[in-house]
From TrEMBL:
InterPro entries found in the cross-reference section: Glyco_trans_1
Name the record gives this protein: Glycosyltransferase involved in cell wall biosynthesis
GO molecular function, one term: glycosyltransferase activity
Residues in Glycosyl transferase family domain copies: 242-401
Lyase among keywords: no
Native species: Agromyces ramosus
Keyword Transferase: yes
Length: 429
């Protein structure tokens, strides 16, 4: 018979197979938790069929990386029938959390995304206490970009005070509140201040006092010391050569600036000898494929929609330049830029990006910065990256790697959980 765990971490997020940096972050924090002394880690997330129905970009189901032993992924079934459309899935998650919070195991619960995950944790904690059973849970809520740009900001702009108050009060009800970047924190505070100005509330002051920064956690070991022979082999399987392509690898949405990259690629003479590889899935995939097909460089533009987490580092390491020309959109602003930090870890060509949102915190001084909506500048940056002498390129790459190592999952985990006072005591070997 298995003994009851001494401590447990529960992570509530949109987990694999969703293509999302914070899906990967949840995985990385789960793995770090095992290394840091948690006996059991449970990721409570959504059923596959529900994720498929949302239209979210998903990884190939048969190519997801396995989790380590000790990490249990739970996808609670919906509660009720079709008359309760989305609420029945949320009820399944909340119900499972109540069970985990009342089984006697000291638990830390981390939610990524305020809506709906932190809201679900708030309801679960309240319900757990109402049972009269012993509850020993510490909650941490991490606010990410779309929490603000897609939910809080839209509430402010539409005058939907009740929805904004619900979100912010659920966030502040957690024991510890963090944001993925200083930019995200300031955006939350500014949005809360607008709500306060109209309704006489005091959300901004509380947010300013309580929110601290926890940058996204990356498994740096995936990107470091890659075998050059393996890199060449992975590229060859895709019909690619080292330094023979410009790479975009992220979600295919308007906010990522892929249209500007295609236009920029058309304007650099390097398109005569390089390919443009656009890797990812997303809601704008079809329209971007149509745009590329109409390009005079159409025969030099390739789309890859089946890249998994294992292949990603090798594609990054082999590229001549990595370009992510993000731009602010009403529905999304890049509030960190996990893929940029991953590219800096992998090496390869220079990172070319914009100063949108929190990108500056991700790249520091180690990227070529171009203006938003400026294909000419993208072309010029590609040309500049290709013109770097090999020794300067190598030196820049090494400095970028050192910067990105601060996002190692172990480093991030220790800062986050030590700051919350919930690191478990390690058993002596």
């Amino acid at each position: 018979m298995n003994s009851k765990p001494r401590n447990r971490l529960v992570i509530v997020n949109r987990a694999d197979p969703v293509i999302c940096g914070h899906s990967v972050e949840g995985r990385n924090l789960a793995e770090a938790a095992l290394e840091r002394g948690f006996d059991e880690v449970r990721i409570v997330t959504w059923p596959i069929e529900r994720l498929e129905a949302t239209g979210l970009p998903l990884k190939p189901l048969d190519r997801m990386l396995p989790y380590s032993d000790g990490i249990i992924v739970e996808r609670p079934e919906p509660v009720g029938d079709y008359k309760v459309p989305d609420g029945r899935y949320l009820a399944g998650i909340i119900g499972r959390l109540v069970e985990l919070f009342t089984d006697g195991v000291p638990t830390v619960c981390l939610s990524l995304y305020l809506s709906p995950h932190t809201v679900a944790v708030t309801d679960a904690v309240r319900a757990a206490w109402s049972t009269g059973l012993p509850v020993n849970v510490t909650t941490i809520a991490e606010a990410v970009g779309s929490d603000v740009t897609n939910v809080v900001r839209s509430c402010v702009e539409q005058g939907r005070f009740g929805a904004a108050a619900h979100m912010l009060s659920s966030y502040l009800a957690q024991d510890h509140c963090v944001a993925v970047s200083e930019y995200t924190r300031e955006l939350i505070v500014a949005s809360a201040a607008e709500i306060d100005a109209f309704h006489g509330t005091r959300f901004a002051e509380q947010c300013r006092e309580r929110i601290r920064i926890s940058y996204p956690a990356i498994d740096t070991s995936q990107y470091l010391d890659l075998d050059p022979v393996l890199v060449d082999g992975v590229l060859a399987a895709r019909g690619l050569e080292r330094d023979g392509y410009v790479l975009f690898l992220s979600r295919l949405t308007k906010a990522k600036g892929v249209d500007d990259l295609i236009a920029g690629f058309e304007r650099t003479p390097a398109n005569q000898r390089l390919q443009l590889v656009i890797a990812g899935r997303g809601p704008d995939a079809e329209s971007l494929r149509e745009l590329a097909a109409a390009s005079p460089c159409a025969d030099r533009i390739a789309f890859l929609d089946d890249v998994d987490d294992a292949e990603k580092p090798y594609l990054m390491a082999g590229c001549a330049a990595y370009v992510l020309p993000s731009k602010p959109r009403p529905e999304f602003v890049e509030t960190f830029g996990i893929a940029l930090a991953e590219q800096m870890l992998a090496g390869g060509g220079a990172v070319i990006t914009t100063e949108t949102g929190g990108i500056g915190e991700a790249v520091g001084e180690h990227a070529m910065i171009v203006p938003v909506d400026d294909p000419d500048s993208i072309a010029a940056a590609i040309d500049a990256a290709l013109a770097l002498p090999p020794e300067e390129r190598a030196a820049r790459a090494e400095r970028a790697r050192v910067h990105a190592l601060q996002f190692d999952r172990g480093v991030v985990f220790d800062r986050l959980f030590d700051g919350a006072g919930v690191l478990p005591e390690r058993t002596p070997a």
